[in-house]
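Figure caption, in words: inputs first, then the predicted bound structure.
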Amino acid sequence: MATHKLFLLPGDGIGPEVMGEVRRVIQWFQDKGVASFELDEGLVGGAAYDAHGESISDADMEKAMAADAIIFGAVGGPKWDTVPYDQRPEAGLLRLRKDLALYANLRPAIVYPALADASSLKKELVEGLDILILRELTGGVYFGEPKEITELGNGQKRAVDTQVYESYEIDRISRVAFELARTRNNAVCSMEKRNVMKSGVLWNEIVTQTHKDGFEDVDLSHMLADAGAMQLVRTPKQFDVILTDNLFGDILSDVAAMLTGSLGMLPSASLGAADEKTGLRKALYEPVHGSAPDIAGQGLANPIAMIASFAMCLRYSFGMGEWAGKIETAIAATLDKGLRTGDIMQDGMKQVGTVEMGDAILAELDAVA
Ligand code: IPM
Ligand code: MG
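Bound structure (3-isopropylmalic acid present):
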């Protein structure tokens, strides 16, 4: 049995707590002899800053580079609000994304049947929802230069961020979108702001061009990102794959997360290009939610997004889609039994903490394995 090298980066806030539950799922796979993992752990975000004054060390970056997959918790918190911008906790995550060239960020928003009532939208709008936000992750305004604040000398300051995309970046993420759509409901809706942004004009043009280059069997539509946001809360089930840039993807995926009931439910996978020789992709798996400092350290956090992120790791890095499905079934069954963490608590359900939720998911996994 091949041994998969996992590099765990729990990070800050609830990161270590939800990572604890993933460790138990990993142990479950080892104990059952289903898969073999070699684990290493590093520091990222505020935790790394406290230890060595930067949001991720070069040594941990090297380990991340060498791993088959990275499992990432969350970063940030008020404690580090005043650290220098370049060392802020989020910088560690952005460095991982950029240096590992993890350009394709898959954020599936699935409404588990038991949670259709937990959404802030009417049940009939979200029941059975299964959409995928595909966010470009290494370009756009997150990384464009110049990015600076300058003193104008007259008591005023000027801040600049640069939204920049080259055609190859749009082309490669479009290909991922079309390929993923073929495995789902075969529809891609591309979102940009071509009415006010040149990068939107190019985005629209390249997506259209790539579509013609061998993907015409996939149904392609375009929406302005603001209208797309509106449609996402109006009739979310009209979408299959939403293809969008780094900034719009950040925003739209938070919206999509709430459709499912809670930010605590959404997993994600960030993938690089396949290696020409080995076919392997660099990959990082992380929940969409943040470090939730308000509930950190209390055993209250919802571990589902983190555990579902590990399921995505099995599916996309290790060809274990069937086992990923079993984890997802175990999560659904746990919710069906009425167990809820605080973020998805509903009348008549049983409120549990992080570890109890993990216990229940493992018990269901035993049942479906
Ligand atoms: C996300 C987060 C990050 C982002 C932050 C933590 C830098 O919001 O992954 O959605 O903006 O990309
Ligand atoms: Mg975000």
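The longest strand covers residues 3-11.
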